[in-house]
From TrEMBL:
It comes from Weissella paramesenteroides ATCC 33313. One of its GO terms (cellular component) is plasma membrane. This is Prokaryotic diacylglycerol kinase. One of its GO terms (molecular function) is metal ion binding. One of its GO terms (biological process) is phospholipid biosynthetic process. CDD domains: UDPK_IM_like (cd14265). Substrate binds at residues 80, 110. The keyword Magnesium applies. Mn(2+), Zn(2+), Cd(2+) and Co(2+) support activity to lesser extents. Its main location: membrane. Keywords: ATP-binding, Cell membrane, Kinase, Lipid biosynthesis, Lipid metabolism, Magnesium, Membrane, Metal-binding, Nucleotide-binding, Phospholipid biosynthesis, Phospholipid metabolism, Transferase, Transmembrane, Transmembrane helix.
Length: 141
């Protein structure tokens, strides 16, 4: 993109600070939409969270169980946000070129998502095990 194209883009797209809350809110919602469109993993996390929500309602989880599940879900979602930000910044800086530090940044960011998912699985097992184990034993007896 040459400087003329750049100037044209800056005229038609916002590149300055948000002037009011509604504008900032709109961009934040657009960011969430972008994440859902770009990241297949994010769509899977949302699907998994919906399944947990339905099963949680079915087994009538208590207040503190819902609190732990909320922490687990938002930890995974936050890690995915961070991962997408890192990917976008790395791609902006290095483009299609290979760089060992780009690899470190992207691998560490996706490692963060993996760690968050492991945490969510542990929380899920600890919370659902007392409800699901008796049912599973009944099925396999
Ligand atoms: N510019 C680069 N230089 C070096 N390695 C890179 C570069 N771009 C990507 N990689 C390597 O390819 C992997 C996948 O990168 P990509 O940007 O496609 O992420 P992705 O498949 O969307 O990952 P995720 O599943 O975490 O969202 C990275 O984890 C990294 O190891």
């Amino acid at each position: 993109m040459d400087s003329k194209d750049n100037k044209k883009t800056e005229e038609t797209h916002q590149v300055h600070k948000n002037s009011h809350f509604v504008q900032a809110f709109g961009h934040a919602i657009a960011g969430i939409g972008e994440l859902l469109v770009r990241e297949r993993n994010m769509r899977f996390h949302i699907f998994a969270a919906c399944v947990v929500l339905i099963v949680g309602i079915y087994v009538d989880l208590g207040r503190s169980d819902w609190l732990w599940i909320s922490v687990a879900v938002f930890t995974v979602i936050s890690a995915e946000f961070l991962n997408t930000v890192v990917e976008a910044i790395v791609d902006l800086i290095v483009g299609e070129k290979y760089h060992p530090l780009a690899k470190v940044a992207k691998d560490v960011a996706s490692g963060g998502v993996l760690a968050a998912v492991a945490f969510a699985i542990i929380v899920g097992i600890l919370i659902f095990q007392p409800y699901l184990l008796p049912n599973l034993q009944m099925i396999f007896r």
